[in-house]
Amino acid sequence: MHNKSKIVWDKCLLYIRGQISEQTYKTWFAPILAKDFKDSVLTIQVPSQFFYEWLEEHYFSLLKQAVQQEIGPNGRLEYAVVIDQGNKKQKPLTINLPTYPGPAFSGAIPAEKTSNYGNNFFPLNPNYLFDNLVEGSCNQLAKSAAQAVASNPGGTAFNPLMLYGGVGLGKTHISQAIGNAVRVASPNKRIIYISSEKFTTQFIEALRNNNVKSFTEQYLATDLLFLDDIQFLSGKEKTQEIFFHIFNHLHQFKKQIVITSDCAPRDLKGLQERLLSRFKWGLTADLQRPDFETRIAIIHSKIAADGINFPENLIEYIAKHVDTNVRELEGVLISIIAHASLAKKDINIELAKQVLKHIVQHHATTKTTIELLQQQVAAHFNISLDNLKGKSRKKEIVGARQIGMHLAKKYTAHSLKSIGEYFGGRDHTTVMHAIQVVDGQLSKDSHYVMAYRSIENQIKTHASFY
Fold it and tell me: Where in the chain is the domain with CATH 3.30.300.180?
């Protein structure tokens, strides 16, 4: 079969050579090797992903003409792309990438392409919808971007869309809401939603079974790829390599990519720089802890969905005392309802206190106010509260103010806008900048870290427990 493929490719090269300069031929076509010829598909091997992308961008029409002239109108081209592992002792991986998507890419993914892996894809939860996602300042950007992506997957500037934040802040709800919305609007769209851990397991299985081609093809044939918990790929060089090539291909052909992470891209350790740079091509949206008003709205939404009434003072009590994340808030509500039902008790603040005693106090959550933070910051730097909240641009006061804003973001549920108001009516962009500055200093200055931790310790000493 190799001899047949070489004969076919040599004839294609004769046609191509007559259409271009000798230098272009030597640079871009002489290094290509014929690999396989089967069912009117000619597979050629190229030395790198960049080589493949250059050919597709600049010589697609020429290659198509050459292949169809030699094979016929149904002739197609497929690339075997060599992946350099950076280790001379290891044999380079080769993945197969199709040329510009044609008939073979329409409709659903063929069953034989997914039979080995398809059962491992996470099904979308039909309960995760935009309609039941409570919007607040904590998730407004992420929700708006997600809705834009759902309306036009692959066709917006938000590709990839990266959602990051701590546990229970809504990453899964928002990402799966995209999938559910697309599935309703375009039932024929091919969607893969999978965790990075499962993706890695699949890839290792494919390597073990010498089946990397089938593994790769199923991802190349999708319209929307959701990869959950990208941080799990940390340190897994080969898995990052294969994902890098899948990412490039999907992005090139305007297929939507959605990624979730437990931290910002700058804080992802053990991921290749070239992969991190790809994440910056689209939009990165931070999911923050819900503020007090949003927590109240979430509680109203949840109890309304369950057809249960809570007294308003109880709703405010819960919102005030559970400020970590949406998941814990939902857990508290479920526990209160369960206790009331099983013990036949009224749903009231006394019952809530009993439940919270076992849930919230378990985390030793402290009750911290911005006023307390400001007092401790001002005391540490020996400046007045008026200066801390005022308009002074002295370096030491600006630095103290930035630390105060950072601590407020870390230890309270206030939105960036609200924090800015406490610090002299500044806007949310000023607070955002302050947080970035402090993060930068904490990552490189040990004396700065000691000062920051000293203030933290004072705050924890003076804070009152629930």
Answer: 2-104
